[in-house]
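Continuing the series of single-chain predictions for the mutant panel. This is the parent chain; the variants come on the following pages.
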Amino acid sequence: MRRRIFETEHEDFRDAVAEFVSRKVTPNIEAWAEAKGLPREFWLQAGQQGLLGLEVPEEFGGGYPQDYRFNAVVFEELAKVSFAISSCVGIDADIVPPYIVDLGTSEQHARWLPGVAEGSIVTAIAMTEPSGGSDLANLKTTAVRDGDAWVVNGSKTFITNGYSADLVVVAARTSPEKKAKGITLFGVETGMAGFERGRKLDKVGQPESDTAELFFTDVRVPAENIIGQVDTGFIQMMKNLPQERLGAAVYGLAHARQILDETIGYAKERKAFGQSIGAFQHNKFLLAELVTKVEVTQAFLDDAIMAHTAGELSAVDAAKAKYWASDVQNEVIDHCVQLYGGYGYMNEYRVARAWKDARVNKIWAGSNEIMKELIGRDLGL
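Parent structure:
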């Protein structure tokens, strides 16, 4: 079915993003995967193209359309080529900026937002810890007031853009006795003494995304780097997580649809027993099921995109979108691997790399088990 949520301005923007991806991204995927990260040149080019400032006010160099459909367009076009890059850009352009825009001071806006929009300041958000996983209410990283600064100690792990980020939004416990109500967000910048990065983590998939461990040893963070109010960080994270989960759903489904389209083409061309493999009834029925499942999921997701654009998307509906879309993504791509046969297990084929890249979408941004817990609670269970 024809999607009805995009208007002419969104489709024009899509054409520009697709052209950028074709010229600047596709030719470099292999080199970036080998380097296990994106070069600064990519970020600057993306900023120049207007892909990084969609959540940044115009006065600071952003587009600031306040229309999530533009964000969705960027994610979808990037995900067609690389699920990893769509997630890296998602962190930098879609997840971190709202914290600064909505909670930051005018001084923080002037200091950070222009660089975010132009790509000279790459961002990350550090919530997850080695011992806690999705349990954000029990963070171990601490921040203690010392004069006009806060001293941060602890570690974070699985941080997307963590190795290259210039600015990391760090969640730390400032009032241990308050538990979830005692967490604060800090802007930790490259060059602060005691802030160190571990190795680039060796992941199963998404090699072009730099993912790192972060370590904080007596890092003195000035009070003016607090993002929002002291001890309100947990509430702020809960408020912003729906957008992160919606983004994971958007680029996850776009990724699956692209690989499915390529697999349908392969099923038409690949011959076995005198006919195309797509002509066999089992494969024909399977592809019919997968296409239908993707399109039905897209309909729900488009509704979620419109709800978020209108400021009406609930945390529970975002959880439904993230859980369902990531499950569909993995189911579809797993079947695509099977249809390619032995070739589907070869890294030289995109379907094999996509299969590995997709798996984490059921884990990050809150595992799918956590999503089901949120949905179940909403049912009064």
